[in-house]
Amino acid sequence: MYKVTNFIDGKECTESNESINIINPSYGTQIGEVIYATKDSADKAIEAAAKTFKTWSKTGLSYRAELMMKFRQGIINRSEEIIDICVSEAGKTRPDAEAELDRAIQALTHTAGVQHFYPSIMSPNVAGGIDITDVRYPIGVIAGCGPFNFPILIPILHASMAIVTGNTFIAKPSEKVPSISRLYADIFKESGFPDGCYSVLNGGKDIVEQLVCHEKVAGLAFIGSTPVAKSLKMLGVQNNTKVQALGGGKNHMIVLPDADLNMAADAAVSASFGAAGQRCMAVSVVVAVGDIADELVDKIKERMPSLVMGKTDNPDTQLGPVISQENKDRIYSFIESAEPDGASLVVDGRKLSDKEEGTFVGATLIDHVKPGMSVYENEIFGPVLCFVRAKTYEEAMDITDGHKLGNGAALFTRDGGVAQKWANEVQAGSVGINLPIPLPTYSHSFGGWKDSGFSETKAFGNSSIEFYTKTKSIATRWPDPTDSKVDLGFPKNDS
Fold it and tell me: Which residues are the active-site residues?
């Protein structure tokens, strides 16, 4: 049994009025305890981060990048420990955790090279010998709230770009998977980052709201559910805090009659049930167009019995547990609503998961789903695939674009013209053609449309720099002293 503490100004902090248990979802048993931060300790973390920002923001970009490379090596050195924690706390399979770590290391490589793509714009002689340069500066203290489903990757995605651009950072990890963010604090310190540069606060809603409302917190990056994302964006507006809030997804995969149905079925099963469906970019709705529906639903059904469900410390496991009993109960309630709403349960995963200890939900396939049904409208965030039937491409597009969430979408077809038209018109932030919704890579932006994203900027990619910085336009003129005179007129463009 272990305890996960807070980390403030370079030191462990155990000051707390509350703690909650950390549960291994494969077994449903307690493996640790996370110590919640108090309001006072959160204030101390913010004050320490604000103080450190004054000096850290003035360090050279190359120096910050050099330290980030040391942090990257520290992550590599602790790889096995990080993966073990992810398997036990998040309930991920080991291959899934390993892939997440690989993606995080790639992100750090990209971040360490930030000086090569740091944007700046200089316009010479815009008027009367005046040069104007747009220069980016760090904004201050950044808070990052990560979800439970990517405890390795998301804290690094948030913290690395925030810190390398000259900000200081406070991590608020999911209370269900707190240990990796806390381990990162030790690695940041070992890598030479100053105290106060990276802190960790554990807690719930009250800590998040304290962060976004604090006058010395300049920005908050959030990835999680749509209702929370929307509420944090509103709080950010009220408190003049820059907020990047990415919400959930109900990602549609349209399959046209000319598609390779075997490839489409493989993709649907992989993208729906990987990580027990607990990915915001998971495919949760297949829309079959025309007379292929029966054949496609059969092909998906045929592939499901081969999925190995079990505890994630078993190397043969493909489908692990969902994160908690609360989440399991919620997913069950959606499955239970399907048939009364008029849908058909093709594969009921509850028959498999009820045999397992831990918080398991078996892979579930629901056919004849229609807009308006509970299983269709809501983000289930579990291994549940909805199958929708459409007569035409236009109907499939109306169904996809009609959903309030627009995180991602996919299309399977052999028709390049249709694919290009669809990619240009579909209302989603990330799209895949003949592959499921792609996982985010740091060199490209990630973020949803409609109610999947509440931000002027995207996460990841070069656009993430825009969130962690602010622009100052600097106008300069170095005239010949002999030409200097009083002139009350507005500068003209004719000289």
Answer: 280
Identify whether 439 is part of a domain.
Answer: no
Residue labelled with tokens 């807690």: 203
The verdict on 237 and 258 lying in the same domain is no
φ, ψ of residue 215 to 5 degrees: the values are -65, -20
Range 391-411 average pLDDT: 97
Q: What is the pLDDT of residue 494?
A: 55
| Number of domains the chain is built from | 2
Burial environment of residue 441 by CB neighbours within 10 A (0 to 12, 13 to 18, 19 or more):
middle
CATH of the domain at 463: 3.40.605.10
Does residue 49 sit within a domain?
Answer: yes
What's the mean pLDDT in 22-29?
96
Is the Cβ–Cβ distance between 246 and 228 less than 8 Å? no
DSSP summary character for residue 446: B
Mean pLDDT of 58-84: 97
Check residue 441 and give its pLDDT: 73
Whether the Cβ atoms of residue 303 and residue 404 lie closer than 8 Å to each other: no
Sign of CA dihedral 259, 263, 261, 270: negative
Query: Which tokens go with 308?
Result: 């190995």
Rounded Cα gap, residues 430 and 408, in angstroms: 5
Domain of 34 in residue numbering reads as 2-247+452-474
| Pairwise CA distance, residues 412 & 432, whole Å | 9
